[in-house]
Amino acid sequence: MNKKYYLILFLVFILVPIYWMVNMSFKPNSEILNRLTLYPHEFTLANYKEILSSEFWRAGYINSILMASMNVVFVTIAALPAAYAFSRWDFRGDKHLFFWFLTNRMAPPAAFMVPFFILYSNLNLIDTYWAVALAHCLFNLPLAIWILEGFMSGIPKEIDEMAFIDGHSFPSFCWNIFLPLIKPGIAVTAFLTFMFSWVELLLARTLTNEAAQPITVTLTRSLGAGGWDWGVLAAAGVIAMIPGAIIVYLVRDLLATGFSMGRV
Amino acid sequence: MKQRPWLFLLPALLLVSISAFIPLITVMNYSQLTLLPGTEPYFSGLENFVAILEDEAFRAALGRQVIFSFLVLITEIPLGLGLAMAMPKEGPGVGLSLVLLGIPLLIPWNVVGIIWRVFTRSDIGVLPAAFDWFGYSYEISSSTFDAWWTVLAMDIWHWTPLVVLICYAGIQAIPEEYYMAAKIDRASPWKTFRYVTLPNLRGVLIIAVLLRLMDSFKIYAEPFVLTGGGPGSSTTFLSTYTSRMAIGGFQMGRGAATSLIYFFIVILISFVIYIVMLNLGQGAGGDQ
Amino acid sequence: MAEIEVRDIRHVYDAGTADETVAIDDVDLTLQDGTANALLGPSGCGKTTLLQIISGLLQPTEGQVLIDGEDVTAKPPAERDIAQVFQFPVIYDSMDVYGNLAFPLRNGGVPEAEIEERIQKIADLLELNDILHSSPSNLGPELNQLVALGRGIIRADTSAILFDEPMTDVEPARKLTIRRRVKEAQKEFDITALYVTHDQHEALTFAEKVAIMRDGRLVQYDTGENLYENPVNTFIGHFIGSPGMNLLGCGLTKENGAPHAQIGPHAISVSDDIHHAMDLSWTDCHIGIRPSSVTVQVADPQDDTHYIPATVSQVEMVGGYQILTARLDDTDVEVKARVAHDYMIDEDVSIWLRFPPDTIQFFHEEEAVHAP
Q1: pLDDT tens-digit series, residues B237-255
Q2: Share of chain C above pLDDT 90, in %
Q3: Of B140, B141, B161, whose CA–CA distance to B149 is shortest?
Q4: Would you say residue C234 lies in a domain?
Q5: Which domain holds residue B262?
Q6: Among C160, C153, C155, C149, which Cα is nearest to C29's?
Q7: Is the pLDDT of residue A264 over 50?
Q8: Which of B10, B47, B228, C330 sits at 20 to 30 Å (Cα–Cα) from C281?
């Protein structure tokens, strides 16, 4: 039973700072600065009104969701065949290539900011969804190949052979047999990919100006402009947090099966 | 048929060349140039590299980074593994725990910084007030010690859930029969952990350790918002230093050289850990 | 080396929820000291659940488990001295074979010198000497399963060993060798054994007595011979034997003052004892006869009324015999009969069948009817 308390204690540790921010977002600045209250005594929605009345925020939301989704699509399409190749065939240099793919995840985004800017300027992609969605493949593609390879290796090769003997063509085998088998793996991969793309700031900030600005960037820029208005800042933080919470809540069952299939 | 693997790798290779390879070439190119605003770039060989390796600030940032990543690994991995073992295996508790654990992961990194900033600031935060009540004077903006452990606590708060999720997946894959056999064989909880849980989790733990190692090296936005790298430069890590060189500084060539050195260090450490972990516990036999 | 007794066991999964399922109901079973027993039944009949209740991995919802008369229901597996071999080889991968065998002894605080002695004994018996210091991951499922077995019987105080379909991962060709070594070990140490399987051949060759379960209930616990010759109900009759017993639905008529079984136009005599137990008001009756007991004749038996005309519909080669399926004329009842492999017979041929009365079982409402 004490194991449970250990978990609960940690979940409380997760929630306390979040609660403090949510609590603060409903307080006027006078209350925030003058006394320490565990719940808002002078409850107000003014902080939220200030943010939500701005066109920037709504656009930021939509931009973020679209970019992260595009990134998930790119990464999944490229990672599935690559992971299949690594899990099924031995070919010259496969181990080296696999590690080389992984090293891309170690690349510091800071190092790639300037080259990215130059490259995407030349391609005329700056301030479009494409730029960010492609740039985020830098750290998401290696991760996706890595995780999917694990899931695929867990599926015996005999299944492939049986399917081909039964007369399935390769596309038919993939669609009808293989993909359904690793669906939970795809779910976990897509979740992690989306997550890392959703929260990334540095590259997104470098590659967008106004039209394609994601929410993380909107947040930083509005902070810079408005100074440290704590109430508004907290409300902005809450707003930036909500989509993530909704996503985890929606996919929780998929995650539970994916993670309990247990091949990461 | 020999070309088949490469055909399958083609999309990934294309994507990597746009997102990594071409930029990396550019970085390499810059690293050997002296680029000053208003003048023509000229080739300066390894000059940039030497200058950085001799820079006190770089060495200090690297030292801090290594210590920080080390602390991250020795706290988050055992903590995450323990929490994963404490997770319910089925029932409504699973979904609830997953949702709560997923929240920190899906908060934009600068917002993580904001959450912890409002949580720990001496004028508006509840943490300093709580410490004050216990008689400890908490000062994130002036005490190096407080700043350090707060950044570490924030990282634990932010990233331990990822370790939990990965380990949880691994634990779920261990057949229940192993635990039944251990019970029948009168194994103590420690021996069950040592001979059942741990050997079966090796692959998963390699992933968790490498992922945390690589990502802890990249930590940037959170401490930037929380402490601004201070007090002084006591929480300025390698990534912060690198991006200061790459964007903040005038010398783009130097920034590029910093990035490459940084890149090299991470790959080296990851590779060593990868090899060590792969061979660990392998003495008695093969993999799985 | 103990007597295992389960008393009035009932086990319910997910009690009180929508998924509530009764896995085991009202099971009583006593395994005598030092005997080899099997637990046989179709998948999902509750075999594994019963096994786990005996080993202590599961707590029964109701009932008791007794070892040598002592109630151990509340005791954890470690205190029951019962070993279990699982469906697939459960091996501690990070230790070599020696370490695996030593594991339960070390956990019990046995001195190293004694451990070595025990391991030597077990290794001799199971022929594991050559691989004692190999890593189990390179050995393949057969040897690993033997190591798991060795780990089960290595403790001097092992009172019983339970097998949960241990041959699932073993190649058919090697099953015989493995089973031989298992059997030898059981005899050598005089261990009470319970072997769970859904393969009757495996059960009957391993065990002196076989318990058959169905839908969570124990149907019959008996020797192989009795199961074959005196099944308590139609399920056992059909389940044991390959092919199983012919079960022919029949009505009852009165002939010469005694009730007779009637299939279509054919009257069938059963043994006198059973005739006296029959009641004309019964419906839902079956007669049962083993395919090997059916007499087949191609020549017309003329006036012998014990023969029933039939038409062959199928002839199959099974093992060293031919199994022929024939339909009794003027009915849609099919009967299987076993004839020698060189018996000349073809499909669509008319034949005559005789059911010797002493070999016929009679079932009323699926239960066997015996002499009053």
Answers
A1: 887 887 777 665 556 677 7
A2: 15
A3: B140
A4: no
A5: 43-279
A6: C160
A7: no
A8: C330
Report the chain A residue with the minimal C-alpha distance to residue B100: A11
Q: Can you tell me the distance from the alpha carbon of A42 to that of A27, in angstroms, rounded to the nearest whole number?
A: 6
Domain limits for position C343: 239-368
Quick check: B87 and B168 in contact, CB under 8 A? Answer: yes
CA distance linking residue A210 with residue B260, whole number of Å: 31
Per the listing, tokens 């399409």 go with A77
Q: What are phi and psi of A185, to 5 degrees?
A: -65, -40
Of B218 and C3, the structure prediction assigns the larger pLDDT to C3
Backbone angles phi, psi at B191, to 5 degrees: -65, -35
Look at residues C229, C255, C275 and tell me which one is the last residue of a structural domain. Answer: C229
C68-93 in b/e form (b: 16+ CB < 10 A) is eeeebbeeebbebbbbbbbbbbbbbb
Q: pTM of the full predicted structure?
A: 0.79
Considering the domain A55-261 in this protein, what is its CATH number?
1.10.3720.10
Closest approach of A58 to chain B, Cα-based (Å): 16
Return the residue matching tokens 């903590």.
B79
Assign residue B131 the CATH number of its domain.
1.10.3720.10
Phi-psi region of C365 (alpha: psi -120 to 50; beta: other; left: phi over 0): left
C197: part of which helix (H) or strand (E)? strand C192-197
Contact C145, C170 (CB under 8 A): yes
CB contact under 8 A, B27 and A256: no
**Tens digit of each residue's pLDDT (9 = 90 or more) over C178-224:** 888 888 888 888 889 999 988 888 888 888 999 999 888 898 999 98
- Tokens describing residue C139: 């050995």
Contact call for C78 and B183, based on CB within 8 A = yes
- Region of poorest pLDDT, from B161-170, B232-241, C324-333, C358-367: B232-241
In the structure encoding, which two tokens stand for residue C187, read together? 């005899």
Whether the CA torsion B207, B208, B211, B214 is positive or negative: it is negative
Model confidence band, residue B159 (pLDDT cutoffs 50, 70, 90): very high
Tell me the H-state helices in A26-136.
Answer: 29-34, 46-52, 55-88, 94-106, 109-122, 129-135
Show the tokens assigned to C98. 């020696």
Q: Where are the domains of chain A?
A: 55-261
| Cα–Cα distance measured from residue A81 to residue A41, given in angstroms and rounded to the nearest whole number | 57
- Those residues with Cβ within 8 angstroms of residue A4's Cβ, 6 or more apart along the chain or in another chain: B86, B88
| Contacts with A, B 249-288, CB within 8 Å | 252, 255-256, 258-260, 262-263, 266-267, 270-271, 274
Residues of chain A above pLDDT 70, percent: 92
Confidence of residue A262 (pLDDT cuts 50, 70, 90): very low
Which letter does DSSP use for residue C191 in this model? Answer: -
Residue where a domain terminates, one of C194, C229, C264:
C229
Query: What pLDDT does B287 receive?
Result: 36
* Residue range A199-253, pLDDT digits in tens: 887 788 888 887 777 877 777 766 655 556 778 878 888 887 887 788 777 777 7
Tell me which chain C residues have a C-beta less than 8 angstroms from the C-beta of B180: 52, 55, 57, 77, 84, 86, 90
**Hey, what are C15's tokens?**
């009690």
> β-pairing, C62-67 with C4-13?
antiparallel
Report the C-alpha gap between A179 and A186 in whole angstroms. 8
Q: Calculate helix-pair angle for A109-122, B22-31, nearest 10 degrees.
A: 110
- Predicted pLDDT at B281: 53
User: Which residues of B, range 174-203, sit inside 8 Å of C by Cβ?
Assistant: 175, 177-178, 180-181, 183-188, 191, 195-196, 198-200
Q: Nearest by CB to C92, which of B195, B286, B288?
A: B195
ipTM over 0.90: no
CA distance C350 to C307: 12
Closest CA to C284 of C249, C331, C334, C321: C249
Domain total of chain B: 1
The pLDDT, as a whole number, for residue C1 is 65
